[in-house]
Amino acid sequence: MSDKTRRFSSVAVVGAGAIGLYYGIRLALGGAGVRFLMRSDLGEVRRRDSAILRLKEGASELKPVQAFGSAAEIGPVDLVVVTLKTTSNGELGSLLPPLIGPETAILTLQNGLGADELLATLFGAERVMGGLAFIACNRTGPGEVTCFHPGSLLVGEFGRPPGERIRGLANQFEQAGVATKVADNLESARWHKLIWNVPFNGLPIVAGGVTTDRICSDPELAAEARALMEEIRGAAGRLGHTISPEFLRRQFAVTPGMGPYRPSSLIDFLEGRSVEVESIWGEPLRRAQAAGAAVPRLSLLHALLKSLDHRPKD
Amino acid sequence: MSDKTRRFSSVAVVGAGAIGLYYGIRLALGGAGVRFLMRSDLGEVRRRDSAILRLKEGASELKPVQAFGSAAEIGPVDLVVVTLKTTSNGELGSLLPPLIGPETAILTLQNGLGADELLATLFGAERVMGGLAFIACNRTGPGEVTCFHPGSLLVGEFGRPPGERIRGLANQFEQAGVATKVADNLESARWHKLIWNVPFNGLPIVAGGVTTDRICSDPELAAEARALMEEIRGAAGRLGHTISPEFLRRQFAVTPGMGPYRPSSLIDFLEGRSVEVESIWGEPLRRAQAAGAAVPRLSLLHALLKSLDHRPKD
To answer: Cβ–Cβ of B297/A296 closer than 8 Å?
Structure first.
């Protein structure tokens, strides 16, 4: 915990869903100047002038809250935390520029693959860090997030080994109450997370809106989940990311204990919102195919999810 | 057209859905004594005392109609035509015996795989013939079938090359106005039909209730349909049934011209009835796997359809 590690004093959180609220409120309560970029919830949050974090142990209120409707009002910050759904990533090129100064870093906490590369292309690879949120939380109202299991955060540099910047960020998160680890290889970490997300975010949708425990208790669906995990493992391996069979076994084994869990993608689907089809299934599929990996089940699953998710995309 | 070919004078049609009504009415109007075994439609059909066949060119009424509520009332016949949905095949062992005399033949016009073998096990392989109905027709009321495209019928002996009996049957169908061909190999014919049925009965259900033209016009779903066709072709090949790439190409090519077609499985699914999951997908999957064929997409599709079709089975 060196005093020399860089702190991000000013932070813009882009996207005030569950993830954006959770980590934004944490960082703000930890002492950073956090400004939230909001859309639909802006009026209610400003009227109340607070953001609320509910935990099992009780609630924290961030009051006053700095909430804005445009990036121009926020202006350049030390750190941009991107927590939009990836279905809105087409907007990043027009949305973020007012937040970016010469030294601004960008941390994307978005699902799946593709956001790191997109941000690197748009704003320069040297700015980009990525994070994987292992957390169970839901947005339960405007500017209000309820956390069921705080889990942990895994952060890494995009395309580089970890250095002082990412360790400073992890330290800042830790001091804000978020258990945080630094990944040696961000891309590898993302492929590891796909081992669970590809089957357990996808199969519940295409199998008729079932919870993850139903996937595990149906022998045939469970076998398909395992086969999808093996396809992802094979593709990751071809891309240089070794995933152990033991990791697969554990990822499968923890799932029944989660009970009748509805993954975020299933909730999005059932509530008529866009599903993050391309970041969780489409981009992994394209990279797997480009690497020559056999991913027939992923291919079928992606085509079905894309068909089911027939709402217009940004 | 030898006079020596056997005619089936007395026929029992088991299952009065679209297929049973169509071929039963045809055979009856062609001079056979056809008795229908019905369940839910029995009262209305008896009250009206007719069965109705609607064609583009006009309608035919079979009046009086011999409709019964139990096989015991029908008694032994020359030919039993089985047109139940395969989801009811668990009842065949208790349903058919009163219809079976020493010389009774059985013709199953049911979808997919498994019915031939089941009937052979229950009643003796020598009795069993199978048929594939290439026809577009719907049951449009109690004892009423509407035919949009009469197509053709392909019949074959179970486990034997064609002989006098099957040629006599084909002749009898021809004389009743049904274009009929005799298959050299019934099992091969069934695998050929699966080339279309596996993708185009299945994908419309799991892709969200879309018509077959939508499968063809979506590049990714179309690629999945082709890949499923290739899996079936590969499995059939391992089982000794050579299917040409040209056959696949044609099966795919005819589909867009069918317009916004709702296959029977999709109609069953959308109207809350059981889907013939095991005969169209489950049994082909098991035979393919037993033969060592790689059928990952069929495996996933079957698991999803089974999950979606969660109504109790007979």
So the answer is: yes
